[in-house]
């Protein structure tokens, strides 16, 4: 555990060999053993479907909102997990070209991580299946959670509540996004402002995740199918740190350590069968070649006419929020001038 936590925080394997008096092979055995245990620990599983938790999250976001928005159950966005350029041998086995992993906006190779967080910066759902070139819209719209929400939103989300996302996503009965128009009215601009005030929560969660686990600050050079389990374990440990900070108690920490020690470690690291919501494990055939990765990269093109937007029904939370902003004459706050300029 000590080796793994220090390694996740950015420790060099050579330093860990000296401080823990172990071989380099033992370093990686410890790291991937801990990753397996974390991902199979039920106490660290993600929880998005709990309606009781959604009520608590709504109250938490209400306190963060400048106008008291009380129907937000989470903020969603995507993050690029930085990796080294995959070798031709690997991408040939995965039936995918190297260019698909390149994100031109970031000028890096990586994987697209989709995540939803609450008001405490705790991740409630994550999904990492697509390469860096895929847009957030494609990665989210083809996820299992999105499909479930499209079909069973009334049973999964408190009526009138919604997620908040940026312009990469589209308006739906469970999603509120900024208004995209050439010229906005004052109340529409005010809506966008106060929506972004809550939407930035997921950006803060990503920032805390990367600063806590500095291994994400450099390109990951592991075998490609190991990156998903690694990132999931880091997100679960991040959630644990958030819960400890919120609860301010040491009781849960000792219980977690006992749970991890009680779990058996899967030694077959190339075929880690991680369980839990938000992660789809990669299966291998008898020759050790992945049967599927990233959904075989079907339709990575994100074209405007491919986007499905819900109708302008008054029952959609986003429309209700805009209407409330209009009735209450909510506008963007005026920019405060420095004292020197006031004079």
Q: Helix content range of the residues, please?
A: 40-55%
**What is the subunit arrangement here?**
single chain
Integer average pLDDT = 81
Distance between the termini: 59 Å
Enumerate how many helices there are, as a single number: 12
Structural category is alpha/beta
Beta-strand percentage range: 5-15%
Secondary structure: number of strands: 6
**Structural domain tally:** 1
Largest sheet at a glance? 6 strands, mixed
Task: Write down the overall geometry.
Answer: globular
Low-pLDDT residue intervals, each spanning 5 or more residues: 264-284, 286-299
Order of helices and strands: HHHHEHEEEHHEEHHHHH
Radius of gyration: 22 Å
Characterise the protein shown here.
It is a single chain. With 343 residues, the protein is an alpha/beta fold. It is built from twelve helices and six strands. Strands 1, 2, 3, 4, 5 and 6 form a six-stranded mixed sheet that branches. Helix 1 (2-8) packs across helix 3 and helix 8 (186-212) crosses helix 11 (317-327).
Q: In a nutshell, what does this entry contain?
A:
With 343 residues, the chain is of the alpha/beta class. The chain contains 12 helices and 6 strands.
Summarize the topology:
Layout: H1 2-8, H2 13-20, H3 24-39, H4 51-64, E1 72-82, H5 88-93, E2 102-103, E3 108-117, E4 123-131, H6 136-141, H7 144-156, E5 162-164, E6 175-176, H8 186-212, H9 224-247, H10 251-262, H11 317-327, H12 339-342
Parallel strand pairs: 1-5, 5-6
Antiparallel strand pairs: 1-3, 2-3, 3-4
